[in-house]
Design brief:
Blueprint (H helix, E strand, L loop, with lengths): L4 H13 L6 H8 L3 H14 L2 E3 L40 H8 L2 E3 L1 H10 L1 H4 L4 E10 L17 E4 L5 E6 L6 H7 L1 H15 L2 H15 L14
Parallel strand pairs: 4-5
Antiparallel strand pairs: 1-2, 3-4, 3-5
C-alpha cells in the first residue's frame, strides 16, 4: 500500500471539518475528487494509521427482548452503519453524536506527526516558473500580517488566480479548487507548503500552528527559559 497525495488531502479535510457530519459524496464534491478516489483515500488513510474507524457498540438487548440491528461493514473500506432512527442527544452532546455518525475520523497524533515530520519528504515541494495563481505557504491570506512583507510569494498556478509569484506544484491537482471551498482546509494546506518551501522562521511557525490545528490536545513543548 502506497500513500497518495490525495490521501493526505482527505485527512486534512476531515481535520478542517472537525465534528461535522459528512458523507462520501460531499467529501468527493468539496475536494474535486471522484467518489472512488474519496473511498480509496479513506481506505489507505486507515491502513496507514492516519485515520481511525469509528467504532459502534455491539447490539444490546432492550426491553421486550429485541435488539438494535447493525449492518455488516461494506467492502472496499466503506464503513457504514444502518441503525434504527433514534432521538438525537440533548444539546451539549452534538459533537459526540456527529463523530459517531461519521465512518472515520482523523487519528490526531499520527496525522500531526506525519504532517510535521514525514509528509514533506513523501510529497516534496516542486517549484515552478513564475505564474499567476492562488497564493500559498506564507503568502496565503491566513498569514497576512504574520510574516514580514517582501518575501517571495508562492502560488498554486490557477487560471482564476490573482497573485503572481513563484509557482509551487500543489499537493494534488484539485488542491486550489478545494482550498477555495474551505478556509480552514486552505490554512492547513498553506501551512504544509510553508514546511515544504518556507524559510526557517516560516517552518517553525508552520509546525507550531499545524500541531495546534491537527492535535490540539498534544502536550505543549516546554520552552527553555534563557537566564542571564
Amino acid at each position: 500500500m502506497q500513500l497518495k497525495p490525495q490521501d493526505f488531502v482527505v485527512a486534512l479535510k476531515l481535520v478542517a471539518w472537525g465534528n461535522q457530519r459528512w458523507t462520501y459524496a460531499r467529501l468527493a464534491h468539496e475536494l474535486g475528487l471522484s467518489a472512488s478516489d474519496a473511498h480509496g483515500a479513506v481506505k489507505r488513510g486507515l491502513q496507514a494509521g492516519l485515520l481511525l474507524q469509528n467504532q459502534v457498540a455491539l447490539p444490546q438487548p432492550v426491553e421486550g427482548g429485541s435488539v438494535a440491528v447493525l449492518s455488516v461493514p461494506e467492502a472496499e473500506g466503506i464503513y457504514r452503519v444502518t441503525r434504527k432512527r433514534v432521538r438525537r442527544p440533548a444539546q451539549g452532546h452534538n459533537d459526540i453524536a456527529a463523530v459517531a455518525d461519521n465512518p472515520v475520523r482523523p487519528h490526531a497524533h499520527n496525522l500531526a506527526e506525519f504532517a510535521l515530520y514525514g509528509a514533506k519528504y513523501a510529497f516534496p515541494g516542486v517549484r515552478l516558473p513564475l505564474a499567476v495563481g492562488v497564493p500559498t505557504s506564507h503568502s496565503a491570506p491566513a498569514f497576512s500580517g504574520v510574516f514580514a512583507p517582501g518575501s517571495t510569494d508562492f502560488v498554486w498556478p490557477h487560471p482564476n488566480g490573482v497573485v503572481r509569484g513563484v509557482g509551487l506544484e500543489p499537493l494534488h491537482p484539485s488542491v486550489p479548487f478545494a482550498a477555495m471551498q474551505d478556509a480552514k482546509l486552505y490554512e492547513l494546506l498553506a501551512l504544509f507548503d510553508a514546511l515544504r518551501v518556507g524559510k526557517v522562521r516560516e517552518r517553525g511557525m508552520a509546525q507550531e500552528r499545524l500541531q495546534a490545528l491537527i492535535d490540539p490536545d498534544a502536550p505543549k513543548p516546554v520552552k527553555e527559559v534563557l537566564r542571564g
